[in-house]
Design brief:
The complex is a heterodimer. Chain A has one domain. Chain A contains 8 helices and 2 strands. By secondary structure, chain A is mainly alpha-helical. In chain A, helix 2 packs antiparallel against helix 7. Chain B has one domain. Classes of the chains: A mainly alpha, B mainly alpha. Chains A and B meet through helix 2, helix 6, helix 7 and helix 8 of A and helix 1, helix 3 and helix 4 of B.
Chain lengths: ~180, ~110
């Protein structure tokens, strides 16, 4: 089943990385800027409510979409990526092996690090993003305007969300590069 | 104190932060263990198409939620030194990220 020239596997891989993953990466800087600016000396009482609404909505969008991204990514594109070829990889032509991305990468010594290092790290570390994002979203929602009085807590949230952002960006970059070399078909 | 007071205890935030740190560490440790033990790798292979990733992530998420819930109950009315907790959580997250790195199967680039 094709959709505008993309196979179903390609369409779902695009949904995983270029739609849901991209939403997560786009919202991160907005929320980080919001948290950074959440200081009593910078915020007016009128602006506080809208400012907090933006941060709360942003953290929950990151949390929900990062869960969707890792769950869909781990159970669909990753499963197709690591499909085993029906015959020995050595006896298949390069063109046929391209249908089995992990086997294709492992079959080429100059490409195997993309599977053995990049994908191995990304497939696990990516799950750290929703765990951190959910904790931050919960704390922001629970403490609400009290965050203004808790500079240490704001700093902790900003740091953890920054770590989650960097990990998400690295996972996105590695995913894009691996897909460029050995796309799921 | 409760939300209506001038001050709110930070125990609930500490529980959420600490739970997340433990979740990250468990994710990393399980990843590391599957690389050094084929028994653990097979045990965590809950869904064959994705391999041990399915078990590693499922177990890490369960541990994260259980630790968070337990800490939430234990700490909800307590005020805790947030700076110390912050350092511990950073170490837990850092170790988790580091342990996800495939130390035991890194090939050389090029060739």
């Amino acid at each position: 089943m094709d959709f505008m020239g993309f196979t179903m596997h390609e369409s779902i891989t695009i949904l995983h990385g270029m739609v849901m993953g991209a939403i997560v990466l786009l919202v991160f800087p907005v929320v980080l800027a919001g948290l950074w600016c959440l200081r009593p000396e910078w915020i007016t009482s009128k602006g506080l409510k809208k400012h907090l609404s933006l941060i709360k909505a942003g953290t929950w969008i990151i949390s929900i979409f990062s869960w969707l991204t890792v769950i869909v990514g781990s159970y669909l594109p990753y499963a197709w990526y690591r499909l085993k070829p029906p015959v020995s990889a050595h006896s298949m032509s390069g063109l046929d092996l391209m249908k089995y991305p992990a086997a294709y990468l492992l079959g080429h010594p100059n490409l195997s690090a993309w599977e053995e290092i990049a994908m191995e790290w990304k497939e696990h570390a990516g799950w750290i993003v929703p765990i951190l994002a959910t904790a931050v979203a919960f704390i922001v929602t629970y403490y609400n305007s009290r965050l203004l009085e808790e500079p240490k807590l704001r700093n902790a949230l900003f740091t953890l969300l920054s770590i989650a952002f960097v990990v998400a960006a690295m996972c996105g970059l590695l995913g894009a590069l691996i897909t460029k070399i050995a796309p799921v078909q | 104190m409760n939300k209506g007071g001038a001050h709110i205890d930070n125990g609930i935030a500490v529980a959420a932060l600490f739970g997340a740190g433990i979740g990250c560490l468990v994710l990393g440790l399980l990843t590391l263990l599957t690389k050094v033990s084929s028994t653990i790798e097979n045990a965590l292979d809950l869904y064959a198409p994705t391999g041990p990733v399915s078990g590693i992530t499922t177990l890490a998420v369960i541990v994260w939620l259980v630790v968070w819930a337990a800490m939430h109950i234990l700490l909800r009315n307590r005020q805790i030194d947030l700076h110390k907790v912050y350092i511990v959580v950073l170490v837990l997250v850092g170790l988790g990220l580091l342990a996800c790195f495939p130390f035991f199967e890194a090939p050389e680039w090029g060739g």
